[in-house]
Design a protein that fits this description.
- The protein has about 250 residues and is mainly β.
- The protein has a single domain, classed as Ribonuclease Inhibitor (Leucine-rich repeat, LRR (right-handed beta-alpha superhelix), Alpha-Beta Horseshoe).
- About 5% of the residues lie in helices and about 20% in strands.
- It contains two helices and twelve strands; from the N terminus they run βββββαβββαββββ.
- Strands 1-2-3-4-5-6-7-8-9-11 form a ten-stranded parallel beta sheet, with no helix packed on it. Strands 10-12 form a two-stranded parallel ribbon.
- The protein is elongated.
- InterPro entries: LRR_dom_sf, LRR_R13L4/SHOC2-like.
Length: about 250
């Protein structure tokens, strides 16, 4: 739907029994404060795909029943959202430390899927201490592309016992050691990492991996080696836009 002036009508607040609301690709630029009345929402998708920053009033904190929350990819710089009381959330997408406090995550112990963008003054230590409480995570997207640190993933605790899917958009000179990854990790995707060391010797030792994705200058080295006996369960491998890669050796039995 294309709303007049890009504004969701304030009358949406009258639908007080609403459980499900999706504005996916609705091209909305302003959300009304009357949305605070939608206290029974279980599912809220605000991924409006507008292309411009979205004005989101601080009303989500009152939707205590929410299980699934999809925030806009772009929000106005001054947007501040209190999300710490949303303790029933199971999926949270596009959480940004620019617009919410990273400590809001501490109480979301039911989270199974989380997409978090690190920006502003938030440190990796602070983020790591908050993530440590989320022991039920199965899917984790970490987007640090706007940070300038060369290698800091080692500072993050990624050892989530239930984690199956990990996506890292983060600058790092080399991939973390094998023991720093979740023990049952099945899918890993790496973007914009600009790793100088070949990640394959580490990745091929993660015995449960079923898919690996290296895209958009994840690796800036010239040579990649997949050795014999590595990747015992791998079903899918995608390597794209690795402009420096010249030689890829796959040993028999890999």
């Amino acid at each position: 739907v294309k709303f007049k002036g890009g504004k969701l009508p304030s009358s949406i607040g009258g639908l007080i029994h609403l459980r499900f609301l999706s504005l996916d690709e609705a091209r909305v630029s302003h959300l009304p404060s009357t949305m605070r009345n939608l206290k029974l929402l279980l599912y809220l998708n605000l991924d409006v795909a507008y292309g411009e920053p979205v004005h989101v009033p601080n009303v989500l904190k009152e939707m205590l029943e929410l299980r699934y929350l999809y925030l806009p990819w772009l929000m106005h710089d001054k947007t501040k959202l209190d999300l710490g009381d949303l303790v029933n959330l199971e999926e949270l997408w596009y959480f940004s430390t620019q617009h919410s406090s990273v400590t809001d995550l501490l109480r979301m112990t039911k989270l199974r899927s989380l997409n978090v963008s690190l920006s502003g003054r938030c440190t990796f230590e602070t983020l790591s201490s908050s993530l440590r409480q989320l022991r039920n995570l199965e899917t984790l997207y970490l987007d640090f592309r706007y940070k300038t640190y060369k290698s800091y993933v080692g500072e993050l605790d990624l050892d989530f016992i239930h984690l199956k899917e990990l996506v890292l958009t983060v600058r790092m000179s080399k991939i973390p050691d094998q023991h720093q990854f979740p023990p049952h990790l099945a899918h890993i995707s790496l973007f914009f990492c600009r790793m100088e060391e070949d990640p394959m010797p580490i990745l091929e030792r993660l015995l449960h991996l079923k898919s690996v994705e290296l895209r958009l200058e994840a690796f800036v080295g010239r040579k990649m080696l997949c050795s014999k006996g590595g990747f015992p369960q791998l079903c899918a491998l995608e390597i794209s836009e690795e402009l420096e890669l010249e030689e890829w050796i796959v040993e028999e039995g890999s």
